[in-house]
Amino acid sequence: MAIRRTFRGGIHPDDHKDFTSSLSIQDMPAPDRVVLPLRQHLGAPAKAVVQVGQRVAVGQVVGEATGFVSAPVHASIAGEVTAIAKYRHPGGFLAESVVIEARDAAPEGDESPWPPEPFRMPGASHDYGSMDAEHIRSLIRNAGIVGMGGAAFPTAVKLSPPKGKKVELLIINGAECEPFLTCDHRCMLEETDKIVHGVKILMRALGVSSAIIGIEDNKPDAIAVMTKAFAGVLGVTVATCKVKYPQGGEKQLIKALTGREVPPPPGLPLDVGIVVQNVGTAARVAEAVMDGITFYERTITLSGSQIAKPANVRVRLGTMLGDVLEFCGGLKADPAKVIMGGPMMGVSLSDLDVPVVKGTSGFLFFDGLAAAELEAGPCLRCGRCVDICPLRLRPAEIAQFIEAGDLDGAEAMHVRECMECGSCSYICPANRWLVQLFRIAKAKLNERKK
Fold it and tell me: Quick check: 272 and 260 in contact, CB under 8 A?
């Protein structure tokens, strides 16, 4: 029996994967209109390089990166740029966005074929074994690829360790520990060859000879498929992890698979010689480096008690949530809560008028029973939040400082280190809103720095 790896702490919520884990990825037809925020990644927002009225091809750059930690944005449909303005971002803020509407024909007098052929980056090749690391990073950077596990950190930056930092190991994250979400699971089953090539390319870009793919054991079919696919790939192993949340966190997966502990912030996985990439990211890397395809579509999960037909769907970035819902048969009834992402770390949405972005892993639709707000009581000093905190923080004590208005005390108790996984709020028998308090405290501490 395979060794099941894990980390200290964590919780065991019902995974609710059965809604969609057996459902193959559906390809949603290109919509008639997309809204592409220029901020779809951590770091500096992209800058629009198109004008209203301009015709664009699928995959063409519409927003260029504006710094080292940034990523370009590409057209996801062929059509005409009809607006460049601020639109609602699913993260809850307004973001400068490029709006493209599909067109049936080229402008009058223009005899060029329409729609034009999708854009492909020059320099891509299936012979990636002969590419140097910088060329690989350049293709990944120009493709606009970011981490698809939720953080949306520009992938090329992760592949460019600073001087003095040596990478020894690549970890591929196939844990997908958030309840309900199954897009990574289906990616491992349906895009296996792309993941294999993507892992090889990432290893070449980093100059490492070893990689570990971590998958939780509630995905036995994915473990079997990936183990078979990598059987002949030197230096790559597939490791089985126990089902536990938040196993997909970088620090927790590193601890589970290697025993190494990433130092507290500003410590990074690089400090222990490791780079972590998501399985979906690896597949997109293969498309970019081998075929010159830019990042303009991704797979998302739609699930929850209120959606008519739960699904895993491949959609164009910028597609409005309402259009995706229509493709999936709509809702059974008005949901009491809509969440982008998983129920533990996802973001609640106030309406459905938001686009799919690079970091969107799914949308969940819940009825009133599932979304009921529990009344918070006083701390019982039971210590459960301390026992399960994956970062070994003391959530109850941090919360007491915040409630007393003592931000300095909360900072001294390392509130900034909190990864906002929500485990403490989940386990608290008094239903205290711990992670929400920590988010407020961190926001106020950041305001004091400005």
Answer: yes
